[in-house]
Amino acid sequence: QVQVVQSGGGLVQAGGSLRLSCVASGRTFVKYDMGWFRQAPGKEREFVAVLDWVGHNPDYSTSVKGRFTVSRDTAENTSVLQMNNLNPEDTAIYFCAARVPRYGRDPRLPQEYQYWGQGTQVTVSS
Fold first, then answer.
1. How far apart, in whole angstroms, are the C-alpha atoms of residue 89 and residue 87?
2. Which of 2, 20, 23, 89 is the least crowded, having the fewest Cβ atoms under 10 Å away?
3. In the prediction, which pLDDT does 108 show?
4. What is the pLDDT of residue 81?
5. Are 115 and 100 in contact, with CB atoms under 8 Å apart?
6. Of the candidates 2, 10, 15, 19, which has an alpha carbon nearest to the alpha carbon of residue 113?
7. In 3D, which of 105, 125, 122 has the Cα closest to residue 33?
8. How far is CA 64 from the centre of its chain?
9. Is the separation of the CB atoms in 120 and 21 below 8 Å?
10. Nearest C-alpha neighbor of 37 from the set 111, 126, 123
11. Which CB contacts under 8 angstroms, 24+ apart, belong to 99-103?
């Protein structure tokens, strides 16, 4: 059984920074792509960032590129999302997710991920 556990998040003023972390545990011999998604009230879950199982090829949504940075410890299946210059439009519940890598499948799609964290609230005040 794989568990994805998140930490971090909270309340910050516009222009501030927050850091989210997650770890996928339970099957340590399997290396996962680690993705981040968010969901604002009344909106669908949207892609934020992903880093593949070897720690290469970071990809970001247009709305966060240049402000957010994703990193990971591939040996431990952990991922960190550093969020800088936050604005109120970033307010959402943020989810970390893990997927078994599959060539040719789009890691920006939430349905590609088998394991999800519990979600953590990020609130940015203006």
1. 5
2. 89
3. 96
4. 97
5. no
6. 2
7. 105
8. 12
9. no
10. 111
11. 99/32, 99/33, 99/35, 100/30, 100/32, 100/33, 101/31, 101/32, 101/33, 101/52, 101/53
CB 46 within 8 A of CB 37: yes
Task: Supply 15's token pair.
Answer: 């222009």
Instruction: Give CA 88 to chain center in angstroms.
Output: 18
* Per-residue tens of pLDDT for the chain, all 126 residues: 889 999 999 999 999 999 999 998 877 667 889 999 999 999 999 999 999 888 788 999 999 999 999 998 767 788 999 999 999 999 999 999 999 988 899 999 999 999 999 999 999 999
* b/e code 26-49 from CB counts within 10 Å (16+ = b): eeeeebbbbbbbbeeeeeebebbb
